[in-house]
Request: fold
Amino acid sequence: MAVGAVDAGADSIYVGALGWSRRPYELEMTDSQIKEVITHAKANDADIRVVFNTFPSPMEYRQWLDAIARFAELGAAGFIVTDPGAIAPIRQLAPDAVIHVSIGSGITNLEDVYFYKDLGADVIILPYRWGVKEVRELHKKCDIEKEVFLFEPIQTGKICPGKCIMSSYLKFRNWTEEEGKDYFYGSANRGAKECYRICQKAWDFGVVNEAHQALKLRSDAHLMLEQIPEMIQAGVSCFKLSGRERPAKMICDLVAFYRKVIDGILDGTQIDMSAYAAEMEVLRKRWVAAKGRRVNSLVSRAHSYGHEKSSVKEGI
Amino acid sequence: MFELSTGVCNPKMLNEGDYSAYDALYLGDYSCPLYPENFSAHIDVLSKAVETVHNWGKKSFVRLYAVPSNHELLWMEEFIEEVFKLPVDGIEVHNMGLLRMLKNMGNQIPVHLGVFGNLYTHETARILKEYGVERVYPNPELSLKEIVFIKEQTPIDVLVPVHGKMPLVISETCFILEHDASSEGKCNYACTEEHWLHRSEGDWSLKDTGRMTVSGKDLCMIEYMQQMVDQGLQHFHVQNLGEPADYAGTVGAIYRRELDRITAGLQPESMEEMLQALSAHAKMGLCNGYYFESAGQHYIGRG
Reply:
């Protein structure tokens, strides 16, 4: 997928280092795979940034930093991190690396952005809730590169990346064997990297002894189109697709589509987004279908996994 | 030697609860500034509460709203300026932006990092020290081993939750309000009634307070107090948000009894009676959280 995304026109590809990103191990890459895509990207004027956006265990911090140093040496252009304590050590290890603050940092306001900038971050990945108005205000007040996911802003539901541990409260799986790490505890934040997306399935919700509603805990995200010109005007310099859990062909098609849309806006050849409406509609349907399949698969894994290492007393 | 603390949201809770077992009270509901007479958003009621708590001979810590959006920074700055004038023993902050704001405002009051500050590592704890943080409430996902490691590696105290529903999610909008057709988008304090989320497939239950979702089961570490004390932990916390008036008193008395026993060096008591009393207040049962590297909702137990 990473090679395909470069070929489809992506400027930067974010790849998950095995054991250290917020996704399952089958969606992460080994050192040699990352080395290979760095070479391919460099040959095509693109760059590779490595995702280290788990919160590592304090007891594996050294191992975590060693992995970052290794990828810096291999030529990674940047790193995405969540733990505030990581920024200074990475700057020391890789002075020229671009340091992104992950969506998992859970920022909610401008002061948060200043906090990470003060620590040395170069790029801030903006919250899903922020629309053009907030982005514009940030651009006016703070000199930091802004990156947004290509989703329309969402205002309702439990949208709290980095600030949700529901999944690991209910179930987690120990991945130690697959990844060969000494310490491993399950959660999206920590690196079991298998958030079961239970927020995206229906729950019975209501007051005790009253009729309940069947509700998802968060709204579905829609791929962005209409807002892109305004986002560019508001200072967004990086648009991002969340690609690792989607079919490679679909991601390559989306990269090619958004490359065309963004280039058209930048060179003025097409600034009317309605010109892309039909094409967008098809891509959105593909996205929703792929996402539904993925959520179903994750939730069914959560149901099927047994308890983990310790004996567990139920019913207390 | 030890500090046992709990949270109190508003004057009603303060007046109705029995806090005699506690050494310190965290004042305010950090999840929603709209909660009725929330100490985290109403300086007048907070001021009186601080006085009351000090008259009881206890410490008072003020909790700030955990997830302020841009439009809320102004009132929060004004609120913090007023907090500076009160004789509070600490300010609990969950948001890095507010942490920075406090530093820039010249704060001299000890800062505690709250649960949604997402503290996972000793490296971050060291950085937060530069922002005046003297105590951290680690993310609930940390194991006991990791908490002890952070305490040993940093010059910062650790607040260890030992009982009550664990905060799992917080968001800037209210889930109850969004799905209450009668509210017409305006808060009518529906969260004062208990709301639950259930999913029969998996037999999963969570409690929802509007902007926050907490564990369905109550964390319970009464069996492990001696072990935690032996590992150098000293500050223990009971989560009390959204619980009935007698919850804090009953739970606090049980943990105080155990801490007093440990202090006196007496032989351990049978846990059965204490566990039964604690179970009676936990609708969905008890759990050990993540302390023993398990999914949060399981109870491991010594036996």
Summary: Confidence is low (pLDDT under 50) at residues 307-316 of chain A. The CA atoms of residues 50 and 79 of chain A lie 5 Å apart. Chain A touches chain B through 75 residues (CB under 8 Å).
